[in-house]
Structures are given as structure tokens and as C-alpha cells.
Amino acid sequence: MYYIKKIYLYKNTHLPKDGWLQGCFNCQQITSKVHLYRKLTRKENIYEFYFFKCNSCNRELKKCSTKRNEFYDKCDDYIVSKYEHLFAS
Q1: Beta strands, E only, the chain
Q2: Nearest CA among 87, 86, 52 for reference residue 71
């Protein structure tokens, strides 16, 4: 049986950390929009990484592949640095 751990990525704001509104991971604008970014399976655990992304950034990133790739690189860098134990061999 797998254990699913959901991890939410957002920019710090004045809002409570466990609220349904958070800062967009790209621009820090307050949003409730959450997008599944990546799933990792490690041993018997599944880690789902979600990020908060406002509608404005979502539209901008859909239009420009360069900005989209930079954003995904930023997400990857953050995940690897904060959750490095998941990537250790």
C-alpha cells in the first residue's frame, strides 16, 4: 500500500501557511489555483508536488515557452534543494 504525501509550493505571504489562499510561486499574487507539477515514487511513498499559480502567470507561461521552462527550472531547483533526501541515492 502506498502512502501519498501532498506538498504545496508557494511564495510566503502574510496569509496562514495552511490556508487555501497562498502566494503564486511565480509572482507572489494571492491565488487559490493549485496545479499538480510532479509525482515521485520512492519506496512505498508517492510524493505529489503542487504549486500555486495565479491565472495571470498561467496565461503568460502558456504563451511563452522560454518563461515556462524558466519557471519549471525554478520549481525543480526548489524541490531538489528543499527535499534533497528524496533525490539521494
Answers
A1: 3-9, 22-23, 30-31, 34-42, 45-52
A2: 52
- What is the mean pLDDT of each successive set of 10 residues along the chain, which is 89 residues long? 89 88 95 95 92 95 95 94 84
| pTM for this prediction | 0.84
- Of residues 50, 23, 55, the one with CA closest to residue 37: 50
Residue with cell 507572489: 28
Provide the domain count of the chain. Answer: 1
Q: Are 10 and 24 in contact (CB under 8 A)?
A: yes
> Please, what sign has the CA dihedral across residues 10, 14, 19, 23?
negative
Task: Print the domain residue range for 26.
Answer: 3-86
